[in-house]
TrEMBL record:
The protein's name: Regulator of G-protein signaling 16
Keywords: GTPase activation, Lipoprotein, Membrane, Palmitate, Phosphoprotein, Signal, Signal transduction inhibitor
Biased composition (Polar residues): 183-196
SMART domains attached to this UniProt entry: RGS
Gene: Rgs16
Taxonomic lineage of the native organism: Eukaryota, Metazoa, Chordata, Craniata, Vertebrata
Protein topology in the membrane: Lipid-anchor
Chief place where the protein resides: membrane
């Protein structure tokens, strides 16, 4: 319905909003933003947030040194919670975040103590990441896929070891070097180096 019509509800709403103080409108926008962030929080530990920018290095809890250490080795990156988040955000731009999600799911799986839970979790991970045409199928060879399938019959905390190792190697040799060369990480490392220099000069 067009706003020129008499007694138009949309026109009344527009006039009503225009009459509100600017501070009220700003608060409403702020509340909407906060609600949006809460609604997008992940429910599963291995599913990470989908931040559109790699600005994690600017958070207070992420030391400048930590950001610079990510380039020392892939292990250093995986040891850092912020590094894993930044890498995951980068992988999303390449549509290959399932590799890291699978690796993280395997790490979580190894901590499972209950044999019943171990079996159900193993099947869930296999169906999501490993089997042919899985919803988030990782890039592993047929032999590794079959070995993992056989491991499910007597699921132990080590049943995904081979598939996890293959996926890790793929990320280390392929995605990790591109992450270090990406404009986002280059910007983060420059900021980190700059903050480090600034701290030393004081």
């Amino acid at each position: 319905m067009s706003c020129w019509m008499p007694r138009c509800p949309a026109l009344s709403m527009c006039r009503g909003l225009a009459a509100l103080p600017i501070t009220c409108l700003e608060r409403a926008k702020d509340l909407k933003t906060r609600l949006g962030i809460l609604l997008h929080k992940p429910e599963l530990g291995h599913k990470l947030g989908s931040s559109s920018k790699l600005q994690l290095g600017s958070r207070r809890r992420d030391s400048s040194q930590e950001v610079l250490e990510w380039r020392e080795s892939f292990d250093q990156l995986l040891k850092s919670k912020s590094g894993v988040n930044a890498f995951h955000t980068f992988l999303k731009t390449e549509f290959s975040e399932e590799n890291l999600d699978f690796w993280l799911a395997c790490e979580d799986f190894k901590k499972t103590r209950s044999k019943t839970k171990l079996a159900s979790k193993a099947n869930r991970i296999f169906e999501e990441f490993v089997q042919n045409e899985a919803p988030r199928e990782v890039n592993i060879d047929h032999e590794t896929r079959e070995i993992t399938r056989k491991n499910l019959s007597g699921a132990t905390s080590a049943c995904f070891n081979e598939a996890q190792a293959k996926t890790r190697t793929l990320m280390e040799k392929d995605s990790y070097p591109r992450f270090l060369k990406s404009a986002s990480y280059q910007d983060m490392s420059r900021q980190a180096a700059s903050r480090g220099t600034s701290k030393r000069s004081h």
